[in-house]
Amino acid sequence: MTNRQVEDAALAVVVEHEGRAGREARDTRGTGAAADLVSGDRVIEVKAFGGSARGQDLWLEPRQVEEAAANPTFWLYVVEHVRGDVDATTVLEVGGEQLAALLSRKREHRYFTVPLPVAVYDELHRR
């Protein structure tokens, strides 16, 4: 399962989860929105984990941190065990004071991404 497939599966789980709560979730990826979904009055950023999220860091973009701090309807949904048995998949909802407490402990990182084109990758493997 690719990272994109894990993300797509996690979003599908959240859409279903929101439906059971009486809210209709709408995918906002690719629209410039700060989060993945809008559901009722909630703005939801989904963090997908193939296994357990226990003790893991949640990676947020700067604009997501800003949105979470400014918007009381911003939620993080942590979806675990996406690569395993679908019945073992769990959704953890983090919002309100709990989200604010987590954000108060945020750590900023600075890094660069360096592309590894397919041609270079293939060349390295031929050596």
Summary of the model, kept short:
The protein is α+β, with helices and mostly antiparallel strands and 127 residues long. It contains four helices and five strands, in the order αβββαββαα. It has a single domain (3-126), classed as Trna Endonuclease, Chain: A, domain 1, CATH 3.40.1350.10.
The multimeric state of the shown protein is single chain
Task: Summarize the helix and strand pattern as letters.
Answer: HEEEHEEHH
Please give the number of β-strands: 5
Q: Any low-confidence stretches, pLDDT <50, length ≥5?
A: none
- Main structural class: alpha+beta
Task: Supply the CATH architecture.
Answer: 3-Layer(aba) Sandwich
Integer average pLDDT: 94
Main sheet makeup = 5 strands, mixed
Helix content estimate: 25-40%
Strand content: 15-25%
CATH class: Alpha Beta
* CATH level-3 fold name: Trna Endonuclease, Chain: A, domain 1
Shape: globular
Structurally, the number of domains stands at 1
The Rg value, from CA coordinates, equals 17 Å
Molecular structure report:
The protein has a five-stranded mixed beta sheet, sandwiched between helices. The mean pLDDT is 94. Helix 2 links the parallel strand 3 and strand 4 (74-80). It is globular. 35% of the residues lie in helices and 20% in strands. The chain has four helices and five strands. It has one domain: Trna Endonuclease, Chain: A, domain 1, CATH 3.40.1350. It has 127 residues and is an alpha+beta fold.
